[in-house]
Amino acid sequence: MNRHVARLAIGALALGVGCAGNPELQNLGTSILTSAGLSSSQAQALFAAGEQSAKAADGLTAEEEYFLGRSVSASLLAKYPPNRDRRLNDYVSRIGSVLAAASDRPETFAGYRFQVLDSSEVNAFAAPGGFIFVTRGLLELVADEDELAAVLAHEVAHVVAEDGVKAVSSANMSQALSILGKQALNDTIASRGGVSGQALGALTETFSSSVDDVVQTLVVNGYSRSQEYDADRYAALLLARAGYNPASLTTVLEKLEQAARGGGGMFDTHPAPQDRLATLGSLEVRPPAPHRTQRFARATAKL
Predict the structure, then answer these.
(1) β-bridge mates for residue 133, sequence order
(2) pLDDT tens-place string over residues 228-275
């Protein structure tokens, strides 16, 4: 291996990351690299790889987050069948949409999506991009619209904080960057441009693993304790913004504490309800609205 060329390739890749999005700097860099012995096509290939690395390091775009969330949702729906009660789903979507609109992230790439899962398990999930799921078992646990809003507000909080995206392991991100870097180096030394079929396959496999990372977090491991506590605090704020009773979150957690004795579902993936209650502290109490209680009863009549 020509060490001089290899060093040039590594330096060019780093330069490509630094010059990403700046055509003038890229032209200057290309000129420097060609005068040092690289062909124009080799230099451009390295800058392209550098741009890809810079983009990956910056995280996912809103569109990429949406497609990741859609793939995660497909995996969840393979495990938990959707509830077909249209009236119930429409109702949950309306409540969720009100909360999302009051949040600090009122819009996602394709909007928030809410779906009831036909499972007796007490659980709820927030996938990247605004895909939110709540089980029939959890709906049977809550007593009114304010308590349902508390559940949904907590899940919206995870979307606002992009906790689903953060569930993608750093190992997968690092592996993707490594593949891009190694491919750029190999292309330069071998005097050929573009990403090889083998490297493209490796990248596809790596980003497919990102879906598995998120599903594993939602269903098996759960978010971190700090993420859950932050979501609780934000949910209380969001309930107040949307005109709901913030203290309903306390009521839901108290019910979860009673239900936790059976284990399973969200009790395996969330901090203990008593710990969440202690961290949350006292919340503002607002009187229930009779019309909300009535429409909750109508929407959940078939549960």
Answers:
(1) 115, 125
(2) 999 999 999 999 999 999 999 999 999 988 876 665 555 565 677 788
Residues 175 and 185 placed together within one structural domain of the fold: yes
Residues 23 and 146 in one domain: no
Residues 157 and 172 reside in one and the same domain: no
Neighbours of 204 (CB within 10 A): 10
> Could you list the residue range(s) of the whole structural domain that residue 282 is in?
62-166+223-299
Q: Cα 138–141–142 angle (5° rounding)?
A: 95
pLDDT mean across residues, the chain: 77
What pLDDT score was predicted for residue 48? Answer: 57
Count, residues in the chain: 303
Residue matched to tokens 């775009």: 61
Same domain, 136 and 89: yes
Q: Is 157 within a domain?
A: yes
Please state at what angle helix 248-259 crosses helix 273-280, rounded to 10 degrees: 160
CA dist 287 and 290 (Å) reads 9
- For residues 11 and 144, state if they share a domain: no
